[in-house]
Specification:
By secondary structure, the chain is an alpha+beta fold. The chain has seven helices and twelve strands. It has a four-stranded mixed β-sheet. A hairpin with a 5-residue loop joins strand 6 and strand 7. The N terminus is likely disordered.
């Protein structure tokens, strides 16, 4: 057993004691820490619809906003840079259709393979279906990166520091853990949309639409049921929550 394992177990044991409000000795009690505020509801089904006909190839509003909002750095190493959302081009091999610019991010699948293969349960599904990573449980094994068919996860290879322009609402990542798009869960819990969607509406052409598919009054629920949409790799049975229009 390594010292790192011992240290981690000691921390987890202390966390358990804190959660339980254990009395250590007469007059000394570890009080339970207040739970983090969350508005996660099992009744919600968050999803995103991207209209590829409105997504310009030279527009980077969504990727830029994501980096700024979530403190996602670029290290200048293409093989190790972190991308929560990236733009890819889809070309018709027969050249019968124009090239499509496609934003790709975590699909927050209903049956996520990343969660199924995680040996420490660091990857998990929140009540409202958002797939997240608990960095305190992540051991950097990268099984989830291999399992994800959308290449939506990154391993943090370098230490990062909080800068003057860092968003204080989002923690700085730790070296050696895996991270990915969270649908800007901190914004959702405050009644806001993901940063990429907001930026697309303001600086782009409004190609991104976000909302609750379980709410029949929501714009996304209406659009998904009235226009032709596709998901990436539906044959895998993962039930992704990123829909594309115009593919």
């Amino acid at each position: 057993m390594t010292m790192a394992t011992l240290e981690r177990r000691a921390v987890l044991g202390l966390a358990g004691a804190l959660a339980a409000g254990v009395t250590l000795a007469p007059g000394m009690t570890l009080l339970a820490a207040p739970a983090e505020r969350t508005e996660a509801s099992a009744g919600r089904r968050w999803a995103m619809l991207i209209d590829t006909t409105q997504c310009a190839a030279n527009c980077t509003a969504c990727t830029t906003a994501c980096r700024k909002e979530n403190n996602v750095p670029l290290f200048g190493e293409p093989s190790r840079d972190i991308h929560w959302i990236r733009k890819v081009e889809i070309r018709d091999k027969d050249q019968r259709r124009p090239t499509v610019s496609l934003p790709v991010l975590c699909n927050h699948c209903e049956n996520p393979p990343c969660v199924h293969v995680c040996p420490t349960e660091a990857s998990f599904i929140r009540k409202d279906g958002i797939v997240l990573v608990d960095e305190h449980r992540c051991i950097g094994c990268r099984y989830c990166i291999i399992a994800c068919p959308y290449k939506a996860r990154s391993l943090v290879y370098h230490e990062t520091k909080r800068g003057a322009e860092s968003n204080p609402d989002v923690p700085i990542r730790s070296k050696g853990v895996v991270e990915k798009c969270t649908f800007c869960v901190h914004r959702l819990d405050n009644g806001q949309e993901p940063a990429c969607v907001e930026a697309c509406k303001g600086e782009g052409k409004g190609a991104m639409l976000f909302g609750d598919l379980n709410d029949p009054r929501s714009e996304i629920a209406k659009r998904v049921h009235t226009v032709a949409t596709k998901t990436m790799r539906p044959d895998l049975g993962l039930k992704p929550r990123i829909y594309y229009q115009g593919l």
